[in-house]
Write a structure and sequence with these properties.
about 45% strand; Jelly Rolls; 2 domains
């Protein structure tokens, strides 16, 4: 009787055919691999039910000069502040123009960026959707600065909950995004309606935007065939992404102030919120793949679940894709709408420290990492706020991982499996299901689910199996390398 170890490498492999996922994990939700073991992600508790009246499309947290914790979020038609006690304040500017809750076909004027069609000719329908409205949120010292992709004005909120955000005087309008640099300049992206223009204020003076010999205000039009989507502050530079390429702005001081360099081509970003910066660089989702920037150049990021995501994503609503850093676990999560979903209902995550990918089902439209608050705060399409990575209650679902086909023996002889020797931290916290078949295209037979003991009587036969491990109850379970007791059973 042989002991067959079920030693499956961490990470999801979901590219190509089913056979290409042999001896790998193929499907999962709400789990992660860490230190060699399979375990659930942290659960969540409700921080504030119905905090917002529409799906939030951006979120930022920060601490003011009085050490008070702040959270801000924007929907297609509102800007909100949430204090540490979870009281919600509507700080929507009086001059704000609401955008679109969903992406929609736009073939009229404004349906594409300047110069893409002949003058006085609205663009014809080409399968391109006008994007869902998002916000760019950043901090200017202890104050909030904000810009809606639909409204285009730059606002500042100076922490007074009795006063709404105000337009920044003299700032350009018709912008698509903003970012505050390490050197304390505000970058207006797509400034003044020019989809390639970056304009910045004077240093430490966000109301001075006209360049002169006595200040460091300025502007630059990027040499790109695309339109600017977003920017992010990094260590020593500012990364600016278009829908086709990547550029880096570096401060050089007067008289030129900023120099711009293209650092990647054919690496455009999928949405304005699909970008995350970490100590190791930046990561983003493109329209058909993932990319990273390591401080030198933008590069394609190999992904073993690429087909799974991009064969399923709702491309009409791709502008809702939202990325968040989960620094406690060295992960980046991208939430996206599946083909049958209008809002984000799935995710793909990258463990950038251990180098593997994960997938799952979860409804989240905006999020912030821990730091200001002791837990990540994520939000769903119903406007609820959650303390994430808290306990192990995952609502109505249980975390699981399911493998691709595993060949028994040499793949020729039938193997008769009689026992499973589990490798759990605590017996009884997971259950195991097997699916067996005798030929690659044969109908699978399901065995289990089995509640585990040592050993566990399972009794089935086949040439190939698939393994599913699923949590039982709201526990912090661990699963390592399980082993099966099996004997050859001849040919069939």
């Amino acid at each position: 009787m042989a002991l067959i170890p079920l030693d499956i490498p961490p990470g999801i492999h979901r590219n190509g055919t089913d056979f290409q996922s042999s001896n790998r994990w193929r499907d999962a939700s709400l789990i992660r691999w860490q230190d060699g073991s399979l375990r659930p992600v942290g659960g969540w508790t409700t921080r504030k039910a119905s905090a917002f009246a529409a799906p939030p499309r951006a979120m930022i947290s920060w601490t003011d000069n009085g050490n008070d914790e702040k959270l801000a979020s924007g929907t297609y038609n509102k800007l909100y502040h949430v204090n540490a006690g979870s009281t919600v304040f509507d700080i929507t500017p009086t001059s704000f123009t609401a955008g679109d809750i969903n992406a929609a076909v736009n073939t009229g004027y404004g349906g594409s960026f300047y110069g893409s069609t002949a003058y006085n000719s609205p663009p014809a329908y080409s399968g391109v959707y006008a994007e869902a409205t998002t916000w760019a949120l950043d901090t200017w010292g202890q104050y909030l600065v904000a810009c809606s992709s639909a409204d285009g004005k730059i606002y500042e909120w100076q922490l007074n909950t009795s006063t709404v955000a105000q337009v920044v005087a003299n700032a350009p309008t018709s912008n698509v995004s903003i970012v505050v640099t390490e050197e304390r300049f505000v970058f207006a992206l797509g400034a003044g309606g020019n989809p390639r223009k970056v304009q910045w204020c004077d240093k430490e003076a966000n109301t001075v935007w006209t360049a002169s010999a006595t200040n460091e205000a300025g502007d630059m039009e990027l040499q790109t065939t695309g339109q600017i989507m977003c920017g992010i502050r990094m260590r020593g530079s500012t990364l600016i992404l278009t829908d086709t390429d990547a550029h880096v702005a570096q401060y050089s001081g007067a008289p030129f102030v900023y120099g711009f360099e293209r650092v990647g081509t054919a690496c455009g970003i999928a949405s304005r919120k699909a970008l995350v910066a970490v100590d190791d660089g930046a990561f983003w989702m493109g329209k058909n793949g993932f990319f990273s920037y390591d401080g030198s150049s933008a590069k394609p990021l190999p992904c073993e679940a690429l087909d799974y995501v991009f064969d399923d994503i709702n491309r009409a609503q791709i502008s809702k894709v939202y990325a968040v850093h989960n620094s406690q676990h060295g992960e980046i999560w991208w939430f996206y709408p599946s083909a049958d979903g209008l809002e984000n209902n799935r995710y793909i995550s990258l463990d950038y420290k251990e180098g593997h990918w994960n997938v799952g089902v979860l409804d989240r439209t905006a999020a912030v990492d821990q730091g200001t608050f002791d837990r990540p705060i994520w939000a769903d399409a119903s406007g609820n706020l959650y303390n994430q990575e808290t306990g192990y209650d995952h609502g109505s679902v249980q975390p699981f991982a399911e493998s691709g086909s595993i060949s028994l023996g040499n793949g020729d002889n039938i193997m008769r499996v009689t026992n499973l020797i589990s490798d759990e931290r605590t017996l009884g916290e997971v259950e195991v299901t097997f699916k067996s078949r005798f030929y690659p295209n044969d109908t699978e037979t399901t065995h289990g689910a089995f509640s585990l003991s040592n050993p566990t009587d399972v009794r089935f036969s086949g040439r190939q199996i698939r393994l599913k491990i699923q949590g039982v109850g709201n526990t912090n379970w661990r699963s390592g390398v399980m082993r099966m007791e099996a004997t050859p059973g001849g040919k069939r």
